[in-house]
Amino acid sequence: MTASLTAHQGLPDDGRPPPARFAYDRHTWKEIAHLLSNLPVAVAGFLYAVFTVFTGVGLSVTVIGLPWLVAGLTGARLLGRAERARARALLGVRIDEPSPLHGSRGRRRRRKGRAGKRGDSEGFSEGFFGWVWAGLKDPVAWRTVLYEFVRLPWGVLTFSVTLVGLLVLWPVLPHVVRGLSNADRAMVRGLLSPSDELERRIAELESDRGVVVDTAAADLRRIERDLHDGAQARLVALAMGLGLAKEKLLEDPQAAADMVDEAHGEVKLALRELRDLARGIHPAVLTDRGLDAALSSIASRCTAPVKVTVDLEERPAEAIEGIAYFTVSELLQNVSKHSAARSATVDVWRTDDRLMLQVRDDGRGGARLDGGTGMSGLAERLGAVDGLFVLDSPEGGPTVVTAELPWRERGKA
């Protein structure tokens, strides 16, 4: 069984026409429904596009003209979404949704952050004109408007041909419907798909940013909990003990000395807990000596013997190095807790501009991305930095995890 999660996931629809099939099956009837619905949908879309564009251009000499046009283009985006949904339901065309209007969210945040410094009115003005400019140059909306313009004559043609075919061209209608539907598919892909690969990457990075924020928030909550329940509680108890010892110093020196000895032991435990916590944030051995020494250190704590091989002539970016370290750390924890392995290996190497790592164990196997062992979290973290995570763990073993990270120059992560 092989499972993988990558930073870029393709869609099932590869752009090719559907395979040949029985003449009047459910797919053909769906295509007929799509072609017959083209006319009313095209009329509504054409009227909206004409009204939006011509009124917006006509009013552009006034203060409301451009905002009106931008609002209309925003509505055109919604029409495009509805058309993609119709094509998905009736034609089986699956297309990525375009990313939100790029830059508007960031401008709103910047406007709020600067409002206190430069005044609410100036922040509002900057945000408003930024919204207008972003809307006017939105390629997704303009291509949707173009789509609505060309759909009217096409809708009249497909509705007429399909309706006549249902009456007098019954034997050959499936072939006619097939050809018209393939043209419809090409039109939807050409005009309603995201602008290009950059649009798709923007949408992915929007999602990945949410993963990074959630992960950082969870890590901060863990650190806060560890400090509150561990070192902080121990230091509070230490302060109270030293206060009692101070009170007994004159009347019972021996009891005071015993309490100071006990406090000394508490200090050692508190220091150990703080060191463990700091190691969990970013281990000093990784910073000072790199991945080879750091991975050998965590391998020594695994319940199974681990052979570590690191073949790197130089060090990757600090952030990438840290992600690689914690990825291997969590995978070796899984080896100790879940695999019942007798041995494991860790291999790290560089291929072109990618940092590669592989962890293998001879345990029982059966690990899954959704199996509650933290695999899905690791895959999401790697995906958030344009990485790749592949899990191969058949029942009975072995389990092999291969991870790939961008290398990036040190100091430029």
Structure in words:
With 413 residues, this protein is of the alpha+beta class. The chain has 3 domains: 148 residues, no CATH class; 75 residues, Up-down Bundle (Single alpha-helices involved in coiled-coils or other helix-helix interfaces); 123 residues, Histidine kinase-like ATPase, C-terminal domain (Heat Shock Protein 90). Helix content is 65%, strand content 10%. The protein has 12 helices and 6 strands. Strands 1-5-6-4-3-2 form a 6-stranded mixed β-sheet, with helices on one face. 25% of the residues are buried.
Report the total helices: 12
Strand neighbour order, sheet with most strands: 1-5-6-4-3-2
The structural domain count equals 3
Helix percent reads 55-70%
Summarize the structure.
The protein has 413 residues and is of the alpha+beta class.
List the helices and strands and how they pair.
Elements: E1 2-6, H1 26-58, H2 65-90, H3 104-118, H4 120-136, H5 139-168, H6 173-192, H7 197-248, H8 253-281, H9 284-289, H10 291-299, E2 306-311, H11 318-339, E3 344-351, E4 354-361, H12 375-383, E5 388-392, E6 399-406
Helix pairs in contact: 1-2, 1-5, 1-6, 2-4, 2-5, 3-4, 5-6, 7-8, 10-11, 11-12
Observed structural traits:
413 residues, Single alpha-helices involved in coiled-coils or other helix-helix interfaces, Heat Shock Protein 90, six-stranded mixed beta sheet, 12 helices, disordered N terminus
